[in-house]
Amino acid sequence: MTISTEAAPNAPATAVREDVRNVAIIAHVDHGKTTLVDAMLWQSGVFRENQEVVERVMDSNDLEREKGITILAKNTSVRYGGVKINIVDTPGHADFGGEVERTLKMVDGVLLLVDASEGPLPQTRFVLKKALELALPPIVVINKIDRSDARPQEVLNEIYDLFIDLDATEDQLDFPVLYTIARDGVCRLTPDGEDHKLQPLFDAILRAVPAPRYEPDHPLQALVLNLDYSEFVGRLAVGRIVNGTVRAKDDVARITVDGESDRARVTYLYAFEGLERTEVPEAGPGDIVAIAGFDDVHIGDTITDPNDPRPLPRVHIDEPTVSMLFSINTSPFAGQEGQWLTARNLKDRLEREVLTNVALKVEPAESRDAFKVSGRGELQMAVLIETMRREGFELTVSKPEVITREVDGQRYEPFEQLVVDCPEEYVGVVTQALASRKGRMTNMANHGTGRVRLEFRIPSRGLIGFRNQFLTDTRGTGLLNHLFDGYGPWEGEIPHRTNGALVADRTGVATGYAIEHLQDRGDLFIEPGDRVYEGMVVGENSREQDIDVNVTREKKLTNIRSSTSDIAVQLLPARKLSLEQALEWMRDDEALEVTPKSLRLRKRTLSQTDRAREARKG
After folding, report:
1. How many Cα atoms are found within 13 Å in the side-chain-facing hemisphere of 562?
2. pLDDT tens-digit series, residues 247-260
3. Do 215 and 285 touch, CB atoms closer than 8 A?
4. DSSP 340
5. Closest CA to 178 of 227, 122, 219, 138
6. 458 beta partners
7. Residue 66 has what DSSP assignment?
8. What is the C-alpha separation between 135 and 208, in angstroms, rounded?
9. The dihedral of CA 205, 209, 210, 211: what is its sign?
10. 380-395, pLDDT tens digit by residue?
11. 371 phi, psi to nearest 5 deg
12. Distance between CA atoms of residues 528 and 145, nearest Å
């Protein structure tokens, strides 16, 4: 450790920890962050040459592997040239922006990864804006330069434009640029230059990312930025030590959001080595550690010296923009597939989620059996619901709704910046669809590759349920990305789903005979043998209104034989909706029943008679 001579005359002397670097990898979703971390781990010797390692080793969560995206920020470290480089892999999707915001507090610099063909996209802007606000120096890595449609020089110009647009300082604009093929672990200094291993990238991190600074005589200060759990030692507080030193068996104080302080003893102290948590006797400034010994600890708390407690500034997280109602399962099939069914189970689980997911808010709803859950977007909500159903929960969720606010007596709603990438022939139909949802085009770019990039500003409400329509309109060839873009005046009514629902009018088992006769009415969501109940949505009507149908009707048997009576029933394949598709498809009077084995759309009011009465009162 070396003492800095750069301190101002009246400022306390600061020291620099030269043997540590802390860096976060930030990018738009699917631009190759986790793949690059894989290559860095391999080339730094974390894995043995013959060791079997799964692809995207940092995406350890089942949902992350299935969806191919990072949901939770995770820590790892590599050693290069005698320096320990702590690396944080962050989510690229804006719905998980809370993970990014608190993660950036752990680091002193960022690797900004950009696809060599797609260029900067909305989430690139989001994560870079957060990094620049914290004055973190960037290293730009243009990835996937082996793509046939790669355009690295144009993408670099777009990155410069983005930095300027985000009011970057002159120092931040003077960033190093590297070109990589993360999948092959290849790095170049120029787009057409010689292939190297990742050594130039490690060298750039050591040069461009500043070493941690601290005050040598300052008492302990560590900021809790993540929570983990171990079956052996209990709750773990993960964070960065800003000043001072912490040792196992030390007495420390925890300062809460209210400024209150309570004491605890550090029972175990862990550092991150490769993918493992390794027990260490002590840790100093700049280290990212996991501390055990707290019965109660929250993200944003400060761990400090009990004799001289000094709190650190808390993490600021952007406000939620979307809310949903989570309630107990009240369908006739409740309790048949899940393990956790009661409102108390639901309340305990949601409160546990809020401890680690700082972007979520949970409030009691009007009904005692329901809770209002607010978050960043539909994807974040869908991941929470999917996680809960895999844990054995049964619940009912409502259609996502945007959170509005009053400004000077006027109603304001959240807006999104939307970027659409589609073939030229679909520009008309996409523009028309977005115009009906109050979208206003702000930019249009044609790179001459047959695809066009369109940018819109659109109310968040307008995007609920749009993705399915968009993929249909573009025959699955379009790409859609969006990012929260502040609040604006309420834009008025926006049309949602134009088609009505086919609703089962009785409880029973669906038959092929009944489904065959209903196929002309619209798309069916069920197959023969599926159990249904009154009020359950079994399909989408081809017309605007809802229709109650009998899907349990059986063929009447007679003792008269016919030459055509035994011809097999010809059924079209059922349209199976995923969780995200079901959330988008719902109307205000519908809900989604979620169990470990099933997803069932239903009407909020199950009884056909009660729905007719409500419609008359309407």
Report:
1. 6
2. 888 888 888 877 78
3. no
4. B
5. 138
6. 416
7. H
8. 13
9. negative
10. 788 889 889 888 999 9
11. -135, 140
12. 50
